[in-house]
Amino acid sequence: MKKATVFVAGSWGTALAAVLADNGLEVLLWTRGEAQAQEINERRTNEKYVPGAKLPPNIRATTSIEEATRHGDLLLFVAPSSAMRDVARLAKPFMRGDQLIVHATKGFEADTLLRMSHVLEEEFAGVLEPGSVVVLSGPSHAEEVILRSPTTVVVACSRPELAEAAQDAFITPAFRVYTNPDVAGVEIAGALKNIIALGAGMSDGLGFGDNAKAALLTRGLAEIGRLGVAMGANPLTFAGLAGVGDLVATCTSRHSRNWRAGYKLAEGATLDEVLESIGMVVEGVRTTKASIALSERYGVELPIAEQLHAVLFQGKNPRSAVEALMGRGRTHEIEDIVREAAAAFRGAPAE
Question: Which residues does the record give as NADPH binding sites (predicted)?
């Protein structure tokens, strides 16, 4: 594998392009913006998304979807969840049947509630065999990856040979890559942890301490696992890099857009003000709405997500949302987890 294409040139896409370039691949970044492409090609920078970083010489940018799609032996899709289908449709006419397809987007499609691998499989029907999309996820802030800070991620695919091909393409001395066959679990964990990160930012913005955050992360992981198991994931995935690893990184770092959004909401900003000030996609906002629809579809309770949904879309005061969570009726901890995990191993939904 000698060439790779990355769709699109945001912070995460640019950081992963640098990882691929460090591995010796000739990388093409696709962007809709002529000015951004010119900046990348002439200055070797992408200041809006990775300020201060100098890009490797074997990265260049293009606005031509045909050139971008034909270029890569590996096609990496890092478009926002809301744009993934549109980007895939643009690329499909120029795809070859032998390209490795990877995505690194953490979210669900709003209208269909589909995971991103399913969106890509739908759009690439006739070109790509089912089960051939590789998912890259895990605790990985673009701001640290671009600086070659030690980072460990996971790639998931139902076809081990494709996961291993992606592993070989991405692994570097600073970017360690594990494989996992549980595509559903990796995608669900990566998407839902953004909801808990919104809550973590809110908790910090309200001045709550470590006790509150520890409880939020722990019970948040239980919610992620509960819905994930109902959707067919392996519960062990949530104890790994895509689960607890990514949850900790996203909920405890100021690099996280979702954490920053929650913090600003706790300070009294409106959702529109928060999104405008951050200036980039905050996937947790869309995912919160999707999670409520998924909880209804699968009959799963998500109390944290429900309270965050009320704050984001119904104008509920963040402090009142915390009080509602603390005032819930008595329940068990271990018994619920054991029952749900056992049901997953049996291949049946938890009762």
Answer: 11-12, 32, 49, 106, 142, 257, 281, 283
